[in-house]
Amino acid sequence: xxxxxxxxxxxxxxxxxxxxxxxxxxxxxxxxxxxxxxxxxxxxxxxxxxxxxxxxxxxxxxxxxxxxxxxxxxxxxxxxxxxxxxxxxxxxxxxxxxxxxxxxxxxxxxxxxxxxxxxxxxxxxxxxxxxxxxxxxxxxxxxxxxxxxxxxxxxxxxxxxxxxxxxxxxxxxxxxxxxxxxxxxxxxxxxxxxxxxxxxxxxxxxxxxxxxxxxxxxxxxxxxxxxxxxxxxxxxxxxxxxxxxxxxxxxxxxxxxxxxxxxxxxxxxxxxxxxxxxxxxxxxxxxxxxxxxxxxxxxxxxxxxxxxxxxxxxxxxxxxxxxxxxxxxxxxxxxxxxxxxxxxxxxxxxxxxxxxxxxxxxxxxxxxxxxxxxxxxxxxxxxxxxxxxxxxxxxxxxxxxxxxxxxxxxxxxxxxxxxxxxxxxxxxxxxxxxxxxxxxxxxxxxxxxxxxxxxxxxxxxxxxxxxxxxxxxxxxxxxxxxxxx
Length: 485
Description:
Layout: H1 14-28, E1 33-38, E2 48-57, E3 60-72, E4 75-81, H2 83-86, E5 93-94, E6 97-98, H3 102-119, E7 126-129, H4 136-141, E8 155-159, E9 167-168, H5 172-175, E10 189-190, E11 193-195, H6 196-203, E12 206-209, H7 212-217, H8 228-232, E13 238-240, H9 268-280, H10 287-291, E14 294-301, H11 307-312, H12 314-318, E15 323-330, H13 332-344, E16 349-353, H14 357-366, E17 369-372, H15 382-388, E18 392-396, H16 399-404, E19 418-420, H17 425-439, H18 442-453, H19 459-484
Helix pairs in contact: 1-19, 9-14
């Protein structure tokens, strides 16, 4: 595997969580897995040197070292130690500005990963993640002389978020060691630019994305971000595999970051977590406050996450018979909106601008409901964390949110949360009002909590689906090789 992020070492979002958990999950199924990722500033890996070599990229010779650390039986991470590329203040850029040499940095990552694989035993498959590693399958497909030991190895490419496309000037193609002949519609050209994402899509044997629903949505103009045509041409290679969550890290029965533990069999500790959450935000925590429903939000405060929708009903929302706690950072206008609401309603609204892992766990454990009104959501993880902690998700039915949350029916006790379809303020409010009405029925609410907590969204389930894709890619390559013979 090749990825620009891997939790717990590096992470800006879901990509790091996915690769960090998928590697040991696949190893648990009996496979040997190596993940290659950058050694960014501050990563102290210990381990030992696995290899050292030079490579020529765009006429510049780079000396790189790979440091190895084991993360599970049969699973290891190799960190690319190349300070000029990766010893920087941030992963991709400062503020809203990307580093101008990102194309070269991540082309180097792909080449180093492949060079190591060619020097140390032929893998069954190469799996590249997100646009940063989109050149990985291209290098393999070009049959470059230094990759001769990997000839015929199939590639899998995973799209985590189609909105990020890795766009660079046309001259980048030659700078990263590829020929100009690839700058075509069926190659890497995208509206006059070079796209690393398109490279990964067009040159891989299999393409995956992070939920079945999202795999369907990205074939449409509405959510295809201009790539719906490119993906439709390869839809026979496209598979949606729902991300998993780490059931060891996100487990209310033994989570070290929350003040009391609980489970589907014994929910008592959740009340103590709710009290601690209210206190952490400086909200009243007496009997009345504990009886009132508490709605949590954790994540990026951006349009993608539905904050434009929330803004249109913010006053109405915080006027409901509920309390709200928000943890996140993002666009200034949304940070200011929540800060202003908290100042005006200090007894009902608590806000932390920024991110704190302990607080994120406390929100999942202590809130009664979790709001995710996303405009689009490739997979989403927080709704699965919420289910695990008996916190009912309120979601827009898009992407992975639609795949993981079913509408709760208080009459039958079936369902795991509350959904709305139309991306409209009224639809959001109606879903929240349904949740508040269900909360007023304690027996039904306990059924909802327990049903959610018994869902299995572990990585072991997802890993088995990835292994199926790997096997199909290997068989497909073998069949094509046999036909050529």
